[in-house]
Amino acid sequence: MDTTNKLPLDMVYHWEKAKANSVYMTQPIGGGKTVDYTWGRAVDEARRMASYLKSLNLPEKSRIGLISKNCAHWIMTDWAIWMAGHISVPLYPTLNADTVNYILNHAECEVVFVGKLDDWDMMKPGVPESVRCISFPLSPPNDFETWDDIVAKYPPLEENVQRDANELATIVYTSGSTGKPKGVMLSFYNMAYAAEGGMEVLGVGSEERMLSYLPLAHVFERTFVELASLYAGFHLYFAESLDTFVQDLQRAQPTLFLSVPRLWVKFQHGVLQKLPKKKLDRLMKIPVVNKLIKKKILKGLGLDKVKLAGSGSAPLASDVLDWYRNLGLELLEGYGMSENFAYSHMSKPGRSRTGYVGESAPGVKTRISPEGEIQIKSPATMMGYYKDEEKTREAFTEDGFLKTGDKGEIDEMGRLKITGRIKEIFKTSKGKYIAPAPIENRLMSHDAIEMVCVSGANQTQPHALVMLGEEARPKMADEAFRNEIEESFKKLIADVNKTVDPHEQLAFITVVSDEWSIENSFLTPTMKLKRNVVEDAYQEKVDKWYAQRQPVIWQ
């Protein structure tokens, strides 16, 4: 891949001059109102904040924390930290106090920026008293120094600070589906390479529009939203809240839209709630109505202007992919991880294959080990784990390939299929090994299911824990509804069991009454299932469920 060798700050300075008066970011401020930030204003405020940070005389390359939901100030802060010669440490806005405390202490953060948050009171006890806090305009009430006061008081940093390509730019803490979060060290070159490579594959230009709503603390959003907008120079919009999400989408009218499987499934369930699948399928077969229906559905979702839609973070069920493609939205899956700045594999328009996450991105070497593990090498791969040489050594092969921990296979066109996590594979009492992900994907074809966890270590056969969608959950006490679901789940088990090996056949489905969420720690901040937490929550009941010998069990 030909790189321009432009690092993130080079791009900041470029757009500061080239598009000074063009709007870069649109920020909702409540009550249906928004504030536009031109490139000129955004860089000016970042320069002023950088002046302030330099005035603190912090040790060189200090770690500076950033706790906020996505907003314009998140991105300006990232730039300011870099301009001041420091390292940004983003934290998810949904972490509990213990995890906040662990990360801020582990990274030895001197300063923390506090922004838009739903539950600051829960997080606040995790911030050490010695840490200086600065608040964004949309932050919860506090007595910290404010962004607006600081940028009004300090002059903009005049010089165009240059950072070395191989310098540490940011420490991204993994979302921790198991154990303590690890601090992934990424250089300016890692970031630049991933951003340029991603744009090359996706053909992104300066006229795009994107809505930023997945956490910027995660590399998926950081690479394909923050860095992509910085390298391409396109317009970024932010979401105000979950309640205003549809209005936010309709305001942005994105041409590029990225999401995660859980949200793609939620969007689909929302449509099918208003227009049941059988009726929709019937209407789609009528040529005159077909185009109108597709257009109406996409417009209702705020996705009618989308020319490129992507899904990442976890596999998406093939039925869901096909459903969107039938609407005319070619939903492209990608694959990456914190350790390679989400830059690994991407499906290409016109070359995608259902169930596959695409081809190696430019500059990425991929191989499958004898054990079936996907191993990757690229210039976007991390420098290592912060303060953990042992785990860094464990993460790489002797010849420098990153061990992903995922199992996979590659087709004749070089497209990669993820077949499961090596660590998720469990052994039944019969001594047979089972990868839960492929079975879970088959179960997710059912419209009523929002999330599923296949388990069964040391049992004779696996079983599935199922969480119904938010439209279906309130009806769980209704006997007629339960009977209907029970019959369809019996059929689902029979259908799935026909497609898997005998040792993989499900003994039963349990419909859980709990809602699995980030707040109750069943999900990571990126909405991935914390398998160990889910399994532990129901462990005491499992033997009793097996003893019932029923295909469908209600918790």
Automatic annotation (TrEMBL):
- UniProt keyword terms in alphabetical order: ATP-binding, Nucleotide-binding
Residue ranges of every copy of the AMP-dependent synthetase/ligase domain listed in the record? 32-386
Catalytic reaction list: a long-chain fatty acid + ATP + CoA = a long-chain fatty acyl-CoA + AMP + diphosphate
List the GO molecular function terms: ATP binding; long-chain fatty acid-CoA ligase activity
Origin, by domain of life? Answer: Bacteria
Q: Name one GO cellular component term.
A: membrane
Against Gene3D superfamilies, the record matches this protein to: 3.30.300.30, N-terminal domain of ligase-like
Entry protein name: AMP-binding protein
Provide the species name. Marinobacter sp. MMG032
